[in-house]
């Protein structure tokens, strides 16, 4: 009879330990998945910020409305709306999140306002318009710089770090 009790006790202990190990590994894998999603989103948002930056810079350098003129195709910036949550959870420091959010808002100003621009392509930019466009660039570039570590995988832990580190 003691053999049966011992076997049952060790069986129960095995189930408990196995369940705990499974839970810990699953939680670690979830952290790795979330971090990878944040990395992918950081890359996409960074790419879109660079694209909007290039468009604004070209408009300023050429001194006329082209890509942001009336009737021009829309400027894409979908990555922000689709990936905000992943970045909000993935960026470790609130300050980083704030910088990226401001950069995205500046880019969205370009994306949202461009279709309402009454100027046809080829219209010269006024000095005031150039100054207004130029004010968008520093914050967008700061956002690109802030996303650099995340886009290069700094957020993605190894499974070992995901399991044994506290976040």
Write up this protein:
The protein has 167 residues and is mainly alpha-helical. It has one domain: Four Helix Bundle (Hemerythrin (Met), subunit A), CATH 1.20.120. The protein is built from five helices and no strands. The protein has helices at 2-62, 78-90, 94-113, 127-151, 159-164. Helix 1 (2-62) crosses helix 2. The longest helix is centred in the first third of the chain and has 61 residues, at 2-62. The radius of gyration is 25 Å and the shape is rod-shaped.
Question: What's the SSE blueprint?
Answer:
Blueprint (H helix, E strand, L loop, with lengths): L1 H61 L15 H13 L3 H20 L13 H25 L7 H6 L3
Helix pairs in contact: 1-2, 1-3, 1-4, 3-4
Q: What percent of residues adopt helix (DSSP H or I)? A: over 70%
Structural class: mainly alpha
Computed Rg = 25 Å
What's the total count of β strands? 0
Please sum up the structure shown.
This protein is mostly helical. It contains five helices and no strands. It has a single domain, classed as Four Helix Bundle (Hemerythrin (Met), subunit A), CATH 1.20.120.
Task: Please describe the structure with a list of short key phrases separated by commas or semicolons.
Four Helix Bundle (Hemerythrin (Met), subunit A); single chain; 167 residues; mainly alpha; rod-shaped
């Amino acid at each position: 009879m003691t053999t049966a009790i011992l076997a049952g006790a060790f069986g129960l202990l095995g189930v408990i330990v196995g369940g705990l190990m499974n839970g810990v590994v699953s939680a670690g894998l979830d952290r790795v998945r979330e971090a990878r999603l944040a990395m992918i989103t950081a890359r996409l948002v960074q790419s879109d910020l660079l694209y909007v930056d290039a468009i604004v810079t070209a408009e300023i350098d050429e001194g006329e409305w082209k890509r942001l003129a009336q009737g021009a195709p829309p400027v894409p910036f979908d990555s922000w709306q689709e990936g905000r949550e992943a970045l909000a959870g993935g960026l470790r420091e609130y300050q980083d999140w704030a910088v990226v959010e401001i950069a995205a808002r500046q880019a969205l100003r370009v994306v949202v306002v461009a279709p309402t621009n009454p100027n046809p392509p080829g219209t010269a930019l006024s000095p005031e318009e150039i100054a207004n466009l130029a004010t968008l660039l520093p914050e967008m570039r700061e956002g690109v710089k802030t996303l650099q570590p995340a886009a290069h995988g700094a957020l993605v832990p190894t499974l070992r770090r995901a399991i044994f580190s506290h976040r």
